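TL;DR need C-alpha cells for one chain.
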Amino acid sequence: MTLQTVSVSAEEAAAHGLPPVAVRLDATNCGMFLVPGSPGCYVHLQGPPGAPLSFVVRPGDRRGDDAVPLEEQVRRRESSSTDLEIGPAGTVKVRGVERPALLYFAGHSSASRACCVARLEIGPVDLVLELTVSSAFRNVPGCAAVAATPVFRRILESFEAAWEPPPPSRPRKR
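>> reply
TL;DR here they are.
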C-alpha cells in the first residue's frame, strides 16, 4: 500500500493526550509507513525494517511560556545513548518558512543514525519535527542537507499544522 496524505485532526490529537493541533502532510512515495498509535506523537513514519529512516511529529517541551532549547530536548530524549554527538544548529524550511533546527548523531555500528530536529511554534504549542536518516549522512553540513533529501522534501513542503482549541464548554441548563 502506498502512503499518501497523512492527516490527524485536533480532536484525534486531544483524544490521545496531545495538545489540540491538527497536522497534515503529503507522504507520497516517501518510502515509509505510518506507525499508528505511537505514544506522544502526532505522526510517526518509519522506513523499511533495519533502515534508520523516520519522520516524527511530537509536541515540544516548554517551561511556562518558553520553549525548551532543542539541544536540551535532544539530550533528554537521548539520555540513554552513549554515543550522542551534537552537531551544528541551523534552519530547515517547512512550507517555505525557515525554522530553527539542530543536527545530532546517536547510536553506534549499524544502529547509528543522523537526526535533524526542527521546532515550529503553532499557537501556544511547539511542535518538534524529527527527521532521521542513516549515519552515512555524518558528513552533511547541517539539517538543511538532511531536509533537502527527496524522502523528506515533499513532506516538509506540504506540512501543515494548526492550533484548534476546543470551544469553551457551556454551563448546563438545569
